[in-house]
Amino acid sequence: MLFTLFSFSALCLIIDGKAGSITFQDFGSFSVSGASPNLEIKIQYEGKKPQISQELSNYIKEQSQNLLLVVIPIEKEPVFSVSINTLRLSWKESKVENSIFFVKDPPVYPIGSGDRLLVEVYGVEDINKEVVVDPQGFVTLPLVERLSVKDMTLNDLQKYLEEKYSEYIQDPQINIQLKEYGSRFVNVLGEVDSPKRIALKKALRLLDAISEAGGFTAKSGDIEVQRRDATGSMQKILISKDALLSAGEGNENIYVFDQDTINVLPVASIYVSGQVKSPQSIQYTKDLTLLRAIAKAGGFTEWANKDKIIILRQDPSGETKSIRVDASRIEKGKDKDVPLLPNDHIVVYERKLF
Fold it and tell me: Strands across the sheet with 174-180, in order?
C-alpha cells in the first residue's frame, strides 16, 4: 500500500467538477492510499461541510466530522495532482451504455408530414415515384391512390405497399428510401454565427448541426445539449468544445435528435483588476495560471503588492471565497503557480509605502 500525506493552511473546502474530474480547493490535509481494487483519498477540512452534488456523491462520502473519503476504482485509472491548496483528481469515466445521449446508431423516426419518400417497385419503373407526405399524413401513389402513412415506419409502409400492389403485380418487391425529413428539427442557440431552427433532413451529428448554424463564434465555449427522455423529463449534458473538435465521429460528436436544443455557451473568462498594467477580462483556458493571467494583463505595475493577491472564486453554492496568494514566492520558485478556474477574479493590491 502506498501512503502519502500532504498538508496546507486550510480555509473552507470547495468541491467542484463532475464524474471523471474533481477539484478540491482549500483543504487542510489529505492522505492517499492505493491498493486494489480502489484508490482512496482522505481529505481533512475545516469549517462547514462542503456541498457535494448527487453525481459526485457516488465517489465522495463523509467518513466522520471534517473528514471526507474519496474512493475511485483502480480500473478507472485515477490520477491526482497537487498545487497550492488545490487537489485535482481525474479518472476515466465510461459513458453509460443506455444513456439517451450516447447512442451508437442514428435515430429512426416514424413517417411524418413533410417527409420526402422515394418508392420503387422492382421491375416496374412506371410506378416508381418520389412523394412528399402531406399535412394530413397522406401520400398519393400510382394504382393504390391516396394512402395514410403517418406514424408508420419504413418497414411498415414497405409491407403495406407490397400487400396493396400484390393485387396488380405478382410478388411485388418494394424499396422505400427516406430522402429527407420534413417534420423533424433541432434548435441551435448561443455562440454560433446564425442561431436558428434546423430541419433534420438526414441523420446529423452535433458538429453537423453547429455547422449548419454558421459554426462557432470567436466567443464560443462548451456546448449544452438538452433532450427529453422517455418520461418527458428534460435531461442535459455539457460537452467540451475541445473534446468535440477532436472527437471525429462518435464520442462527444453525438447524434442529435428531433427537438433537441443545442446551446453553445460563451467561453469562460478570468478577470484581472487592480495593480496590473492592463486590467481586463481574459479568455479561460485549462492551462491558465495566476502568473500567466497577470502577464496577459500586462504584468504588475510598479506599485503592485505581489505579497497580497486575492483570487475571488465562487463555490457551487454561489458563495464567493477569497484565496490569498503570495506571487513573489511563486516568482522565486518557492511556491507553485496557482491554476485558475473559470470566472475567477484576480485582485492585485497596491503596496503601502509606509
Answer: 129-132, 116-121, 174-180
